Amino acid sequence: MKKFVLPSLILTVVLVTALLAWDPGPRVQATAPSLNEIRASNAALDYYGYVYYTVRPGDYLASIAREFCTSWQVIYDLNRNVIGPDPDHVVPDMVLVVPAACNGGGGGCAGVFDRGWLPHAQGYVIPPNQYRVAKGDTWYSIGKRFGVSVRALQRANRQYYPYAFTTMRIPCLNAGPIPAPPIYPPITPQPPPTVTPPPAVIAYVTIDFPPANAVLPNAFTVSGRGGGLPEGNVVVRVKDAHGNVLVEQATALQGENVGVGGEGTWSVDLTIPAPSTTNGVIEASSPGTGAFASVPVFFQNGGAVDYPPGQCQVQVSASTRAFDAPNGSYLGNFSGDGAFEANRREQVNGENWYRLPIQVGDNPAIWVKAGELAGVTAGCN
């Protein structure tokens, strides 16, 4: 046994030397200084920023330093006036001022403040730097809310998942003033767009049918256009050669916005008790305006009406027969469909006949029966 004494002695000396050389760092702290004292006496705070750290059971300065990416000597220097000469004098529930060096490569607390609720970061702050975790919170969202990296949060709280209803520390929170909101240039109010109303329509009325000097039967249609008329009203009067009113009838414009001065068309059917032949005039006007129009016409009552050129056209077909006179001799049928001008209408035995200025043989004109026509224009009425 004696031959092992020397090696054992050597081993014992090595172990004692190693234990004496190992420096775990200080383990204790006392009361934290005031904020003004810290700011006045510790230049390191100007660069790093700081957090208030409450010592927990088992803490010592070296373990706290690892948590905040700094050294125990820095923490001791910041708190020397309250820890005293022994850096190992650290007890639970004491508050230390600790530099926050984990948020970004250069450390510091710039940009760390509460930005308000975010999705998956809807807990609440317990001043000065505690955060109550809500259900559904994640490391990433909590970090986004406060401007702190996930690594810094995990190191500061020694946990790998933010469990609901637990309290965690937010490094650097409330370490300095919250940055002022950005100043945007004032917005110059723009004047509302100017809406230029369309130009007002000058009141007018026209008579488009019948044309001037038309030969009209007792019943006929008058039509025209108008605009700028109050409520779109139009009054149509028919007078004889002496200015006597034969018939008067009111109508209204048809179209968009005609009731507020817009433009539109109008039409009215009239029947007059005219003598066998007479000159006359058709007038159109609108009450309360100077709009006025008139056309001279010729009324021919009874069974015969002569049409001026271009007023009356009839539509024939292959089944339309031609005669030399009303109920006269049959001349033949038309070869196909076509439109021809009529210059006279006569009524025989209650049926209308139209004369077409078409020469067939010795006949300078032919007659067609209204019942065999495909159609007639409005001027034939």
Number of helices: 8
The share of residues in helices is 10-25%
- The CATH topology name of one domain reads Immunoglobulin-like
Amino- and carboxy-terminal Cα gap? 152 Å
Outline the biggest β-sheet. 5 strands, mixed
Structural class: alpha+beta
- Mean pLDDT reading: 78
CATH class of one domain: Mainly Beta
Strand tally is 22
Give the uncertain stretches in residue-range form: 24-48
Query: What's the shape?
Result: rod-shaped
Radius of gyration (Å): 55 Å
**Strand percentage, roughly?**
25-35%
CATH architecture of one domain: Sandwich
Q: Sketch the topology as an H/E string, one letter per element.
A: HHHEHHHEEEHHEEEEEEEEEEEEEEEEEE
Give the strand line-up of the largest sheet. Answer: 7-13-12-9-10
Task: Briefly characterize the structure.
The protein is α+β, with helices and mostly antiparallel strands.
Question: Could you explain the architecture of this structure?
Answer:
The structure is a single chain. This protein is of the alpha+beta class and 381 residues long. The termini are far apart. The longest helix has 17 residues, at 5-21. It is rod-shaped. Helix 4 packs across helix 5. It has eight helices and 22 strands. The protein has helices at 5-21, 35-41, 44-48, 61-67, 72-78, 80-83, 139-146, 150-157, and strands at residues 50-54, 95-99, 124-126, 130-132, 167-169, 204-205, 214-216, 219-227, 233-240, 245-252, 263-271, 277-285, 292-300, 304-306, 312-316, 321-323, 330-333, 338-342, 344-348, 351-356, 366-369, 375-376. Residues 24-48 have low confidence and may be disordered. It has a five-stranded mixed β-sheet with strand order 7-13-12-9-10, with no helix packed on it. Strands 14-19-20-21 form a four-stranded antiparallel β-sheet, with no helix packed on it. The protein has a three-stranded antiparallel β-sheet with strand order 3-4-5. Among the domains are: 25-99, Membrane-bound Lytic Murein Transglycosylase D, Chain A (Roll); 204-302, Immunoglobulin-like (Sandwich), CATH 2.60.40.650; 306-380, SH3 type barrels.
